[in-house]
Specification:
139 residues
């Protein structure tokens, strides 16, 4: 009838570690949400500012016309939504792995996510830069 006192401590320690990991995942998700909302807000502001300038000065030929400002603004909004979906997916995977009784730390290949994120931002920047240069060349 001797029960092992270390088994309860180990389970308690494991549960506290899981709780810390869950809280860290929530903080990370909150940070991603903040950054994605900033991107979405920037896309909306970019579109609205250039639309207001175009309406205020209709005779002035701007370098970037209204069509391209809509495309760039919507692209930034889409990038923010895309990154938000990825962040939510990673959060759900992390929380699901913490719910398992036989939890074993398996690192998510974060460098793959970072490569996708940085690659998406660089690709968006290059497309925007090429779009601006095309508009300048045609204008």
């Amino acid at each position: 009838m001797s029960s092992n006192p270390f088994k309860k401590l180990t389970n308690l320690t494991n549960e506290l570690a899981k709780e810390r990991n869950r809280a860290a995942a929530e903080r990370t998700l909150t940070s991603w949400i903040q950054n994605c909302l900033s991107l979405i807000g920037f896309g909306i502001a970019f579109d609205r500012i250039f639309s207001a300038l175009h309406q205020a000065f209709p005779d002035n030929s701007t370098v970037i016309n209204a069509r391209w400002t809509h495309i760039i603004g919507l692209s930034v909004i889409a990038l923010g939504i895309f990154l938000l979906i990825i962040a939510i997916f990673i959060y759900l995977v992390a929380v699901q792995s913490l719910k398992r009784n036989d939890y074993l730390y398996r690192p998510i290949r974060s460098y793959n996510l970072m490569t996708i994120t940085v690659g998406s931002i660089i690709l968006f920047g290059l497309v925007s830069l090429i779009a601006v240069f095309i508009v300048i060349a045609w204008g």
